[in-house]
Amino acid sequence: MFKDTYQSGILSLFYSCGSKPLSLWSKTVKSGYVKRLTDEQIQSLVLEIIGSNVISTYISCPASEQMSLGIRLPYLNMLVKNLKKYFSFEVQILDDQNIKRRFRASNYQSATKIRPFICNLPLGLNPGWNQLHFNLPDFTKRTYGTAYIETIRVQIHANCRLKRIYFTDQIYSNDELAAEYKLLYPN
User: Fold this and answer.
1) Of 8, 93, 132, 151, which one has the fewest beta carbons inside 10 Å?
2) Bridge partners for 33 per DSSP
3) How far apart are CA 78 and CA 75, in angstroms?
4) Is this model's pTM higher than 0.85 or not?
5) What PROSITE patterns is this protein classified in (predicted)?
6) Is residue 187 very low, low, confident or very high in pLDDT (cuts 50, 70, 90)?
7) Helix (H, G, I), strand (E, B) or coil at 26
8) Helices (H), strands (E): how many in the chain?
């Protein structure tokens, strides 16, 4: 999708306030829902993903399983709300050994489990809204001893609220980010 696109700075993959926030995404829903609503805490449109089973309700980008994102920017960033329920997200990457590997972060796992093609990571979330930064080259190197090449796919599973998902070439301070890339609370 983005393989032939010049990539630097910030590349947005999802924005809840956009006119068609899921235009690049597929939706899988079993015993739950995916809908846009206004979050009372930040007074903004967000996407709520709710499911009785974390595994069976999710959004995935790119929409087609045969496509690849081709994003080479090293940092995955998310603005996500902790709903005090089970939640996970998954990132599939390609490394310099030409192996596809997945990192799955979840708030219901207490220990890291590394297997040849998937690494399960515990995720600690603060109450309310969280700004997550995921250093893909660092995780790839520390977990598999290989180098990160690109991101192939991103999946966000139930149960959470999403405002923004974006990739960056570095970690930016809040002062360096435009308003739509950070958490703003109304006065």
Assistant:
1) 8
2) 50
3) 10
4) yes
5) PROKAR_LIPOPROTEIN
6) low
7) strand
8) 1, 13
Report d(CA 14, CA 182) in Å as an integer: 13
- Number of CB atoms found within 10 A of residue 45's CB: 15
Q: Please state, in angstroms and rounded to a whole number, the distance separating the CA atoms of residues 29 and 67.
A: 21
Contact 56, 32 (CB under 8 A): yes
Cα 83 to Cα 124, 149, 187: the distances in Å are: 13, 33, 22
pLDDT tens per residue across span 80-109:
999 999 999 999 999 999 999 999 999 999
What SS3 state is found at 140? Answer: helix
- Domains in the chain, CATH or no CATH each: 14-170 (2.60.120)
Q: Give CA separation, 94 vs 32, 37, 167, in Å.
A: 31, 34, 16
Q: Which amino acid type is present at position 99?
A: I
Q: Determine the Cα–Cα distance for residues 181 and 168; give it in Å rounded to an integer.
A: 11
CA distances from 10 to 63, 152, 169 (A): 21, 17, 7
Which residue in this structure is represented by tokens 């990132």? 91
The DSSP H or E segment spanning 136 is helix 136-144
Please report the sign of the dihedral spanned by the C-alpha atoms of residue 158, residue 160, residue 161, residue 166: negative
Residue 85 has a CB neighbour count (10 Å cut-off) of 14
| Residue 42 tokens, joined | 């930040």
